[in-house]
């Protein structure tokens, strides 16, 4: 009982901020280190922001609170940019080194910094089929070596009572 309380106390040492993980995740010009170059597919529109986040590739840490992850010294990276008005959409995020990482991408159409299934879009590495809960970390992960790795993420939006990629027109 004491150990969980100590972990919780340590997690509170880093103040909450939407900037956690941004400095570590920012790619350098012509990035040559371990990183994901994400090609975004199936955007509903060109409004709002895109928020790309990288987590440890395990179910306990995938989509966990960023403050808790950073306080525990675990991997967390974030890139947040306005949706470009036109053209292909690509984002780059640096990771600590070669390995397997869970990757999520939010199309925050209303700019409130959280996922609203009725408004926003969501996608993951590996493009798992989404149901009523988050995918497993294994299905939402990708591996990277010592250099950049290109992955495609297909966005999912509300369709009926669930979320899925938009119909191709």
Task: Describe the protein in words.
This is DUF2141 domain-containing protein. It comes from Novosphingobium guangzhouense. Pfam families: DUF2141. InterPro entries: DUF2141. By secondary structure, the protein is mainly beta. The protein has one domain. Helices cover 12% and strands 34% of the residues. The chain has 3 helices and 10 strands; from the N terminus they run ααββαββββββββ. The protein has helices at residues 2-11, 22-25, 66-71; strands spanning 35-41, 49-56, 77-82, 89-94, 99-108, 121-124, 141-144, 148-154, 157-159, 162-164. Strands 2, 3, 5, 6 and 7 form a 5-stranded antiparallel sheet that branches. A 3-stranded mixed sheet has the order 4-1-8, with no helix packed on it. It has a two-stranded antiparallel sheet with strand order 9-10. Strand 9 (157-159) and strand 10 form a beta hairpin. The longest helix has 10 residues, at 2-11. The N and C termini lie far apart (55 Å). Residues 1-11 have low confidence and may be disordered.
Topology (elements, then pairings):
Blueprint: H1 2-11, H2 22-25, E1 35-41, E2 49-56, H3 66-71, E3 77-82, E4 89-94, E5 99-108, E6 121-124, E7 141-144, E8 148-154, E9 157-159, E10 162-164
Q: For the record, give the distance between the C-alpha atoms at the N and C termini, rounded to a whole number.
A: 55 Å
Give the topology string: H per helix, E per strand. HHEEHEEEEEEEE
- Binned, the helix content reads 10-25%
How many domain regions?
A: 1
Say how many strands there are: 10
The proportion of residues in beta strands is 25-35%
Mean pLDDT: 90
Taking all Cα atoms into account, the compactness measure Rg is: 16 Å
Outline, from the CA principal axes? Answer: globular
Helix tally equals 3
Q: Which structural category do the helix and sheet elements fall into?
A: mainly beta
Largest sheet: 5 strands, antiparallel
User: Low-confidence segments, ≥5 residues, pLDDT <50?
Assistant: 1-11
């Amino acid at each position: 009982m004491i150990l969980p309380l100590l972990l919780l106390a340590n997690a509170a040492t880093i103040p909450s901020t939407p900037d956690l993980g941004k400095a570590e995740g920012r790619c350098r010009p012509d990035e040559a280190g371990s990183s994901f170059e994400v090609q975004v597919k199936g955007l509903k529109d060109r409004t709002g922001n895109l928020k790309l986040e990288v987590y440890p590739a395990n179910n306990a840490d995938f989509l966990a609170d960023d403050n808790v992850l950073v306080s525990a010294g675990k991997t967390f990276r974030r890139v947040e940019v306005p949706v470009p008005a036109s053209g292909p959409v690509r984002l780059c995020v640096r990771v600590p080194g070669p390995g397997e990482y869970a990757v999520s991408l939010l199309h925050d159409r209303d700019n409130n910094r959280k996922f609203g299934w009725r408004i926003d879009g969501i996608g993951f590495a590996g493009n798992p089929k989404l149901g009523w809960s988050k995918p497993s970390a294994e299905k939402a992960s990708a591996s990277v070596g010592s250099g950049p790795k290109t992955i495609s993420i297909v966005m999912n939006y509300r369709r009926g009572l669930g979320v899925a990629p938009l119909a191709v027109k």
